[in-house]
Amino acid sequence: MADPLPLGAGGWSVRAGDLEVRLSEDAAEVAAAQSLRYRIFYEELAARPTPEMARDRRDFDDFDRCADHLLVIDHARGHGAAGVVGTYRLIRRAAAAEMGSFYTAHEYDIGPILDYPGEILELGRSCVGPDHRTGQVMQLLWRGIATYVFEHDIKLMFGCASLHGVDLTELALPLSYLYHHHLAPPALRPTALAERRSEMDLIPAQQIDVRRAVAALPPLVKGYLRLGGNVGDGAVVDHQFHTTDVCVVVKTDLVTDKYYKHYERQRGRPDMALTSS
């Protein structure tokens, strides 16, 4: 088994042709990620920006200051900030302690996650530009996350994943499927805060068309489920983002096993370079 790649701002990258995934290295690259988030969340998906966000055309909050920002850069478009076409926000325990909480704690009681032994990682603010929504880009993002997991010995990942829309009747099928088939075990189960909670158990289990339900899930949620992920109890309607959120919890065992093997296979491929400095 290979050692994890070195990590740190500018300390590693995964390259596939013109595409590269790595952590942001400067404020300009973080701003580029925030601009991409604005274009996707507020212009494409009709979230409601604050006046400050609308003025700057960037999606931002205080958590950006303590987070690591994972980027996909298309060098055919430009280097550094000019080439950012995908992003993920990564927050570990120490960063959350600096802020006083994780972002997810604004929607869920995450006590069971906080009690989990070892390092934990909150995933959030994931988006990819419309011209780059391919399997290759998503695989690069996951390879970046896997590298991060290796380096920091992450034991558990979690975060809010969004279903587009705020009408629970339209989302009843996927929400009910998640509740009946993928509810996290009690020892790891986050619970939606009472003042924000919407029930997920909207259709009896025996009435769920599993194939239709899975087809209705966003690709990101399906990706988490393929890694053995589960969801918390209760959904949260986010009117600012025009989404309905579920809290996803993923133990990293499958991530580390799958990607250690994957890295070993890729090392000899001329079109897939793993570099570090």
What is the overall silhouette? globular
Individual helix count: 9
Helix content range of the residues, please? 25-40%
Radius of gyration: 18 Å
Provide the number of structural domains: 1
Please name the CATH topology: Aminopeptidase
Helix-strand string: EEHHEEHEHEHEHEEHHEEEHE
What is the straight-line distance between the termini? 20 Å
Poorly predicted residue ranges: 1-8, 266-277
Mean pLDDT: 89
What percent strand? 25-35%
The assigned structural class equals alpha+beta
Characterize the main sheet: 11 strands, mixed
- List how many beta strands DSSP finds: 13
Can you identify the CATH class?
Answer: Alpha Beta
CATH architecture identity: 3-Layer(aba) Sandwich
CATH homologous superfamily title: Gcn5-related N-acetyltransferase (GNAT)
Structure, described:
The longest helix has 18 residues, at 27-44. With 277 residues, the chain is α+β, with helices and mostly antiparallel strands. Helix 5 (135-152) packs across helix 9. The strands form 2 sheets. Strands 1, 2, 3, 4, 6, 7, 9, 10, 11, 12 and 13 form an 11-stranded mixed sheet that branches. A two-stranded antiparallel ribbon has the order 5-8. It has one domain (12-269): Aminopeptidase (3-Layer(aba) Sandwich), CATH 3.40.630. 33% of the residues lie in helices and 26% in strands. It is globular.
